[in-house]
Amino acid sequence: MSTQKQPDDAVITAYKNAPARTITAGGVTYAYRELGPKGGIPVIFLVHLAATLDNWDPRIVDPIAKSHHVIAFDNQGVGASTGEVPDTIEAMADDAVTFIKALGFDKVDIFSFSLGGMIAQALVVKYPELVRKLVLTGTGPKGGKNIDKVARTTYLDMLRAKLTRSDPKEFLFFNRNATGKPAARAFVNRLNERTVDRDAPISVKAFRTQLKAIKKWGRSTPADLSKITQPTLIANGDNDRMVPSILSEDLHHRIAGSELIIYPDSGHGGIFQFHDKFAPAAVDFLAR
Fold this sequence. Notes:
An eight-stranded mixed beta sheet has the order 1-2-4-3-5-6-7-8, sandwiched between helices.
């Protein structure tokens, strides 16, 4: 009588179950999680300001991981990764490339949100041969109007959150109205679905250095985005208080052939509020 043996490498497609891993390169040990079927072009996730591995919405990651090798990681000095957070977006992009190359990849798709989208732009401009497709969400271009005001908005909403004992992301990412408030709570609850191997929180020093880098990015000379020839999907809510929604339009006009999705009655976290619409759109974009 033969018993069927379960394969040891059964594919994990739920982000909450993705194993915590590390890899060391350039003197930095990077913390990362991977899931989805291996082979093909991997999708590297670049996360937002103050975020760690625990900040990705599983309703976005899981649908993509059904058919793609997905890798999320903490950049240098963030969460469980060692080293110091660099004070420029360009240096953060160099770190991301060090991590990607350490894993042995020479072609990747990039999925990015907010600060991650700034890093993605710097990366694709400097290392165009590395990127096949680009997803830019809740982000803006170098030199973009009012990006340098992110720190002010962030500190204000952190204070508002403290006074109401809420998560700052409920204020920063969502409208404070009848649709935004429940969407915010649902999003924050989803971030707690993973119960084991949680990431280390970001340090105050690392957070402040990221803010400094964003301010520099906002006050810098605009980059030449006509250099970006990769298929690009841009998405945001129509009322982004952190990185003004108009900057998503700006990216769309400056990146030839790019696609733009703006979700109604939503803020910086529009893709999370409309995950049921956005996740299939992202899966379709990456599959084409």
